[in-house]
Automatic annotation (TrEMBL), chain A:
Pfam families: OmpA. GO terms for cellular component: cell outer membrane. Belongs to the Pal lipoprotein family. GO terms for biological process: cell division. It comes from the Bacteria. This is Peptidoglycan-associated lipoprotein. Keywords: Cell cycle, Cell division, Cell outer membrane, Lipoprotein, Membrane, Palmitate, Signal. InterPro entries: Bact_OuterMem_StrucFunc, OMP_bac, OmpA-like, OMPA-like_CS, OmpA-like_sf, Pal, Pal_lipo_C. Part of the Tol-Pal system, which plays a role in outer membrane invagination during cell division and is important for maintaining outer membrane integrity. The gene is pal.
Amino acid sequence: MTHALKAALLIGALALSACTNADRFDNPDAVNLNDQAGIGQTGLGAAGNPDSPEYFNQTIGDRVLFAVDQSTLSPQAQSVLAGQAQWLMTNSDYLAVIEGHADEQGTREYNLALGARRANAVRDYLVSQGVAANRIRTVSYGKERPLAVCSDESCYSQNRRAVTVISIGVTS
Amino acid sequence: MIRFLTFLLAVLFATVAHAQDPLRLELTDGVIEPLPFALPGFHAETAGSEQVAGSITQVVAQDLMGTGLFRQIPRSAFISTPASFSDPVAFADWRAINAQALIRGAVAVTGSQVSVKFRVYDVFSGSEMGEGLQFTGTTDGWRRMAHKVADAVYSRITGEAGYFDSRVVFVAETGPKDNRAKRLAVMDYDGANVQYLTDSSTIVLAPRFSPNGDRVLYTSYESGFPRINVLDVSTVGRQQLTTQQGEMAFSPRFSRDGQQVIYSLANGGNTDIWRTDLRSGQHTRLTSAPSIETAPSFSPDGSQIVFESDRSGTQQLYIMSANGGEARRISFGEGRYGTPVWSPRGDLIAFTKQNAGRFHIGVMRTDGSQERLLTASFLDEGPTWAPNGRVIMFSRETQGAGGTSSLFSVDITGRNLQRVSTPAGASDPSWGPLQR
């Protein structure tokens, strides 16, 4: 691998971790990135590499969507989560934080509680598929972090989501 | 001719009858016509106090006019203007322009000290309402002195406590909808003197003043998870309410004595209401149902808690004992009800209602009767009561990608909807007590 390619991957890894880790944990990937040997082992590799975070986020899918005021998992959501569980069991260095979100139709407090329900529904499903419970934490953002900003169903449906954010770390 | 005489007699009789009744504006749903008052500029009694005197007069007028209950008679209509504070009142001149109340005042500045004195007169009975009062303080506190004068005038004319010398804590918002920066801020009730209490490095939500205004409870994401902080307003020092890992805490509110906090705790996806004693640190669980229980608010006597729950399938309002236990549902109208807040008088509960794609701020009696919707918009939420229980402030968010949030106030009769001026976006107001 050329230095230029390594550098390109490194930048890609930084950009990816910046957008997936939502600055919650001190980004553990960032530490490894200064270590050349570490890059060789945990770099993103080709997008097709099934052990890459990129694969998790884009090919398996890092999020599931919900119906209005609901936290039940659709068959489609369950199939995405089965893939997430499989990936997490293969890549046991990774921890997951599940972010529950709501659309703007609803009061702030209720949406925080609803987001907690959604995040927990995802957590329960991953655990039922065999992921260790101590690798998963949940957080609700209620309606505080919408992804799409219009005020109609085309945006609301994207905002009613639970996103599984993965990062390398030690279990608590 | 006879008809004219009858008319004249009727007018005379009405005037006499009026003259015998002391001036009193009864705050009922029926008050539609604002009471006209005359407010000659406060006299500047020392050299260099003209500017402060002018500013104070202006704020007194704004406070009274802002209620929607009073109307200021323009100075151009005045027949005479007193030359000094001690001049006798020319009642006939004020009656002639139909001023019902007359407010006279004077301001003196000595060094960094300012003193304001005022008297209120019932023009038609030709008598003073209450006794003259004087406030003294430092010049930088002139706005508070103006608010105190207006509070006294409001109180003497309506018989109700005022609310102008009070502060509001809120969330100041900047940035686009999908990357909004939020920080806690506190301001005078009218939007003046904004001060920031936190930076915008993390999400902060729904601040709540303590009953005496010394502390603020709010929800912060500084740990990465929603947790409740107690912030000391004067030192800006803050402390986190103890929460176990895996728990999310939000929607806090103080008890009347400021020693207890009730809030929501989400654990394993289930949200219930808890109470923490700030002195002993003891946590008590007040609800345990698989449904969402949130947005608790104490009754003024501390014996009961109103909250929202979706245990029936949709968000509705319930009241339970302050120690938990059986709850009785009080909301039965169409739609969803949330964020109940008990009025400081104890007689009403303000709430957010969501129905047919619209949001409303409303009030109902504590048994759920006499529901009255005060506002309607794309998104109104989070009512908070003025310390006298006559006015409600809330957040209003506009629709669409460019939607922004701002603060509004409305009288509990549903009249006098007004935008509260803030430097940028604003949400989640909590109205503090009348200051001493």
